[in-house]
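Quarterly update from the structural biology core.
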Amino acid sequence: MPDSELASYIRRNVTNSLDEDIYTGDLSAQLLPETLISTAQINTRQQGVLCGTQWFEECFRIQDPDCVINWLAKDGDRISAGQTLCEVQGRARALLSAERCALNLLQTLSGTATRTRLYVDAVAGINVKIMDTRKTLPGLRQAQKYAVRVGGGHNQRIGLYDGILIKENHIAAAGGIRPVLQQAFHLAKPGISVQIEVENLAQLDEALAAGAKLILLDNFDLDNLRAAVLHTGNRAELEASGGITINDLRDVALTGVGRISIGSLTKDLQTIDLSMRFS
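Predicted structure, tokenized:
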């Protein structure tokens, strides 16, 4: 996504978050004088990987365009418990109104980046890509995809519009692997990937014979993954998927597949614990 489109997406994300929280007005913030200027620090209670600083900034700038934000860390940095991440100075009412949304977005995206880095580090030294999926939080698809990249992972297709993934139901409805692949190749425009999911070595062989160049091996055990890699050679790129955990990730990577997709990067989310304190 180009920077200009990302900026527009971030503003929509943030506007929706603020509208959900503030709606007709922040009643609690009205306890403070309208002209009061304050400074607050953002601290982390956990270690992890920082991500989402642009979302965080947008929350405060919408509430107070003149606020000043001084970052002491950047997206992609490893952060430690007790670390101060940034200082924010601006109208006290605005800081309090933006606080929860800003922290929610920052800690959610940092959680995704942190989990991704854990998986990427687990396969260090092996020529394999850790991929995400479309199992994202509703409304935060692009944000979580960005966080995966910050954590060192790679994006699958963003949505149904920018890539074709042929799954078992497509194959069944279309009458088989060859006809569905032929239709996919016919529909795919330049820059649109075509990937097909197979469930056994016989289907793999059929997909290869039909010209597949990107094949997802669904729930293959280690022996069948190794057999698939050996049988395929350099005819297609292979991706392992299906219930792969951090415990067996490295063994899967050592089979020789080029990609491993992990739905839990964005689905099974544990946020980073952050807090804001006025100086």
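Residues 109 and 143 are 7 Å apart (CA to CA).
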